[in-house]
Amino acid sequence: MNDNLKLKFIVKFDRNNSSVDLKEFCYNTETLLKEIYNKFFSNESFSISISIFQNIETLCKNFYGNNNKTGNFSYAMYEDNANTIKTCIPSHDEFKKFRDAIIFAFSRALIFSFPNKQPQIYDYLKEYILLPFNDRLTFKYNTKLFKYHCEVKLSQKTIIDLDDNLTKVYEKASEIWDVKKLKDNDILIFHDYPSFYNTFFSNEIYKGVLGILSGLSPCFMVAIPNPECIEKDTNGKKKYEDIIQVVTHEFVHRINLTIDPYNSIPYWMFEGIAEKLTNNHLFDNLSKIEKNKVEIEKVFGENLDAFYRNQGYIIAPIALIYIENEYGEAVLRQMLNTPRDCLKLLYPEIQDSKSRHNKFIKEYSSYITKLI
Length: 372
Hints:
By secondary structure, the protein is an alpha/beta fold. The protein has helices at 22-40, 56-64, 95-113, 118-130, 156-173, 193-201, 227-231, 240-259, 267-278, 296-299, 304-309, 312-327, 329-336, 353-369, and strands at 5-11, 46-53, 76-79, 84-88, 139-142, 146-150, 185-190, 212-214, 221-225. Strands 5-6-7-9-8 form a 5-stranded mixed beta sheet, sandwiched between helices. Strands 1-2-4-3 form a 4-stranded mixed beta sheet. Helix 1 (22-40) links the parallel strand 1 and strand 2.
């Protein structure tokens, strides 16, 4: 094993408060990352820092600016502008999640630093993601654009419904992004809701979650429970149509993150475009909003909990429809392809980003409060 990989570990908390042997933790992490590195490199030298936080709350607070675990969180993140992986010590029963996260974060670092190696790293990641499911997802269905890996045999109707809806979204997305960058479009389908839920969420309680995006672009894979079982669910809350819509929603995320691996657009746009392209009942859903209980401006902030609490899945996609109607389809498309300060495209005369943000919220709030 060569020594071209140099890792620098930085402990971001009092070592005396550690619940694990930090020396062993660093050794095991280094062994794992060197194993990955040596799959792709023999001569190139590479150095990276690894900051270790005490738990996921302090990691999220440092990386996201808050300690809220809800939503898009992981046990390891790569910060490209600092060439640093930020991670935390997992509990014993969550080590598998940590291992996956550190592999994805490190792979992202390699992809960012050695773009010519992207295809090989992507293929490795895809194989790694599918490895635990090879013995379970034994039924395979391949169509023109998609590969379905299923735990049970699906009916012809379900395959057709899934494929028709995914293909329509693929075509809509092609008007916004260069979808040719997508490689294999893999869809993982589990036997029923408990099988899917226990695979991805362990003992956590995620009410209403019907689908998930798992992996690293462009190896992101959409995972869902079998729509036929959802249809038979006796509690009446989960329906066949719901899961068909969820798979298309997650697939839009998969396209978005392939085009923009670092997810540079604001979260409200990330979720908003997924709903805009897949939900045909957005304006009907406005009836669910209680006018005096929703703080519209918080949908456009950085707190994910506030996004969910304030009906972000309704407010955000309608904001994109508003932009499309007021400023034009071309402007919206450009915004979705513009990292970070996309509101500059709406208000180029305003220099300050916060002022642009406030102006948009004022305009949009005036529009949507008339509809609620």
